[in-house]
Amino acid sequence: MQEIFMAHGRVGRLKYFLTSIAITVAMVIPLVVTSSTDPQTLQTTIHPIGWLFMLIGSWASISLTARRCHDINKSGFWQLLTMIPLLGLVICLQLLFESGTPGTNRFGPPNGGVTNNAKAMEMRMENIEQKAAQTNGPAAEYYNEDGSFNMDGLFNKSA
């Protein structure tokens, strides 16, 4: 939960999109619930709790957008360009649709984790296969001497 208020690191497109929606809902609902409108003057008053939620939500939104900028290898200050009419729309669309830089960039690894998820998964699977091949348990017959998995052993087994 505390990572939502931190501006360092990176965040991918889907997490950025879903978290942005959650932040918006978390800001709008308390604002609507705590505001009141005078029917004669149509002046709207917002309760201090509503302002508090707006402040917290703004902070979370700014830090989230900074991390998304980091994912596409841009400075967090780059989000200031969203305040320029029309250019801001282009920047917002870029933040939503541009993929992050593959691997580690100057802001760290993607999603604050492993730099290459496919390689990490492959290494884990090799480790599991080697450990299983070293045992003499019931699954050992499905492994070759070099530790690789033998799919033929699964289907050619006679009952």
How would you characterize this protein structure?
This protein folds into 2 domains: 2-112, no CATH class; 118-155, no CATH class. The chain is built from 5 helices and 2 strands; from the N terminus they run H-E-E-H-H-H-H. The chain has helices spanning 13-34, 48-71, 87-97, 117-134, 152-155, and strands at 35-37, 44-46. A two-stranded antiparallel ribbon has the order 1-2. The longest helix has 24 residues, at 48-71. The N and C termini lie far apart (53 Å).
Structural key phrases:
mainly alpha; 159 residues; 5 helices; two-stranded antiparallel sheet; 2 domains
Overall 3D geometry? elongated
- Rg: 25 Å
Coarse structural class: mainly alpha
Output the helix-strand order.
HEEHHHH
Strand fraction: under 5%
State the separation between the terminal residues, measured CA to CA.
53 Å
Count of DSSP strands: 2
Low-confidence stretches are none
